């Protein structure tokens, strides 16, 4: 059985150090390079990040590839080889400026082009119905060129493949009979076809219905499915024919996992191939398709759900539109039979949304076309069942599962925090690297003075190293003995970086009102990219940098408080900042962050969490004990109650003097003296249409931050909580997540057996 993980994003970061770690070669390479008079770390810093993702969804795919290889699964990652990944972020005068990420400028040593497996992908055209069957004709062809990147498992001699497709124009492109005239023009037009794999769409949790994006989605799906079927047909296992012709066994040999709805076209495309090309009976084809595909939902935000205009499909993928209509009719007939006369239920459950612009709801298509649907944390999966797909859950409850996300401990502990990995291994051995639940053994050492001292020492070294990095690259000097208070993630209203800003301002005002009082010194670091078209997110960045400008230059404050915006946050920067963090901020409005995975990285690397009961925070609190995290604010039930009651921001503004002072300062231009009206959009949003209820959690947040300060003043007790958190983070390994996918969705068993190395004969 082969696993195909389909994703439009793979946020891989750098590969050199990860490859050395997984091959067990790091020390040998270190030594060899040192003897050549070179510094391995300097070499590692030269490598570009493979930034083929926006945030959590793309990074999850990368962690999953690592775990699938480490667990010995025959798994392939399939995606697009974007020529330009997520933009590089520069901060100019406090504003985000984007520049193109030309990551392939000097070539990519980790990839191998595979022109021998190049495949055609069809667009546009029309559909011909005849007694012989259905034909999709007069299409435009784009070629898909595969590039393979090796994915090594951890010290098990397994190497899987990530195959990314690049778009190539065929040589006769635009040179057909009707284009007699301009040869030069025709050759230049090749770019139109090749633009498909040019650039990653930089939106996180937001749907932008552009035709080029739909082309990207079909491009990866069409190329990948041809590849999957070629491999299925040529496989000799359990098949005496030289070429496999029956598709009966297809779902037993092939599992397709859809990472969000982006590769949802796999469902109609597989139907098209089975019915139109392979002449499989419609009902049989539908059974095969459903048994093969499974869908992971990543968000409940309505603006993030993919709803494509029918008119766009009609033009670009006419046959797929016909198939979707037929599948929807079949689906609605079933619903109508079970719920006679319930017209509203039919409307709610249809794949086609009626209205001024008819749209295809890709999430509904995924649910009807998959045998398993999962959310990515328990609370999120419950919301999926009880609200987003409530009607579908009532129809087929057995379809719905939870698979709480995880992170790979290879990159997110061994690679980024070798000091901590060493002190852990010293106490409990090295088994935890492939079985993170073994960290539980650290609970025996919570009162062990040397261990407490060693853990604190590693953190301090990491903080000093990160301080030096910030000074070298961004010319900012920070106090390494201050609390490193970190919020790094994409900038989005639901993640509530604004709540963090209000705390920073409140802290500043408290210092100003009594400079002689003793304060727990903090360095507040906020980092993340804003989608280029997301105005509010860009304003939030400007607000953070403006607050920093004022606070960092106020002589009354000194080094008691600093606010730093971490420019160009990406995987390689995460590997530096996370091991240095003391406090991890996970403060989304309850019910909005599907899981989060940064939260898990901080927990594993010895930071304490301040957070709401949202996403995987809930399970982190359950594992470590709620008293070992700083949990505050509304729960999902409270948010729902407030929605029913009506959220009135002004009420909090009137009642809480410190909140009012902070808002008035933002509003009056205290943080933007050159442009006093700069933040009126932000203030207006907070006061009048804040979907994420920042003010409702302000009071509880400030109070909770006071408890953080209290504990930080007792380093021994703080470190004991840190150890408890690390010891309880084992559940959040992507090895555990992938084991659950394998057993409960794909029907395969992971294996921990090390295959013999290639230089030894196989048994």
UniProtKB/TrEMBL annotation:
Catalytic reactions on record: [(1->4)-alpha-D-glucosyl](n) + phosphate = [(1->4)-alpha-D-glucosyl](n-1) + alpha-D-glucose 1-phosphate
Keywords: Acetylation, Allosteric enzyme, Carbohydrate metabolism, Glycogen metabolism, Glycosyltransferase, Phosphoprotein, Pyridoxal phosphate, Transferase
One GO CC term, this protein: cytoplasm
Required cofactor names: pyridoxal 5'-phosphate
Top-rank lineage group of the source organism: Eukaryota
Keyword Secreted in annotation: no
Subunit text: Homodimer. Dimers associate into a tetramer to form the enzymatically active phosphorylase A.
Functional summary from the UniProt entry: Glycogen phosphorylase that regulates glycogen mobilization. Phosphorylase is an important allosteric enzyme in carbohydrate metabolism. Enzymes from different sources differ in their regulatory mechanisms and in their natural substrates. However, all known phosphorylases share catalytic and structural properties.
Molecular-function GO terms, alphabetical: glycogen phosphorylase activity; pyridoxal phosphate binding
Protein name (Swiss-Prot/TrEMBL): Alpha-1,4 glucan phosphorylase
Pfam families with a match to the protein in the record: Phosphorylase
Keyword field contains Transmembrane: no
InterPro entries for the chain: Glycg_phsphrylas, Glyco_trans_35, Pyridoxal_P_attach_site
Residues modified to N6-(pyridoxal phosphate)lysine: 601
GO process terms (BP): glycogen catabolic process
EC number: 2.4.1.1
